Amino acid sequence: MKKIEDCARNARMHGLNMKLMHISALNQETRKTHAERHGVLFTPEQARLFWSNRENQRNCRCSVTLVMVDEAGRTIIPEITERARAAYEMYNKRYGFN
Asked: Which residue spans within the chain are E strands per DSSP?
């Protein structure tokens, strides 16, 4: 939660449009609900809400990273989320969440 707060504060301080990209561990122990968020952009409030649930915190190896977005909330460098989502798709094929 501290990382989320730090990211939100830094974005506001510098006047940047930022969102948080969820980064999941994508290993055998990764929960489906966490893996599905890999590469998806969230507002700080959405990220806080997710981790405010104790079950989502338990044994979680996920992280977030700041991503600059445009006025519409789309990433300025689409390859960032595209690569993350491609990693999720490979993970999904391997562990079969479909």
From this structure: 18-23, 41-42, 63-68
With beta carbons less than 8 A apart as the criterion, state whether 66 and 20 touch: yes
CB of 42 closer than 8 Å to CB of 97:
no
Residues of the chain with pLDDT under 50: none
Written as six digits, the tokens of 1 are 């939660």
Quote the domain boundaries for residue 74: 2-95
Task: Report helix angle 44-52 to 2-14, nearest 10.
Answer: 170
**DSSP per position, 13-28:** HHT--EEEEEE---ST
Model-level pTM?
0.86
Domain count within the chain: 1
If one counts every other C-beta atom within 10 angstroms of the C-beta of residue 67, the result is: 21
What is the side-by-side strand order in the sheet with 18-23? Answer: 41-42, 18-23, 63-68
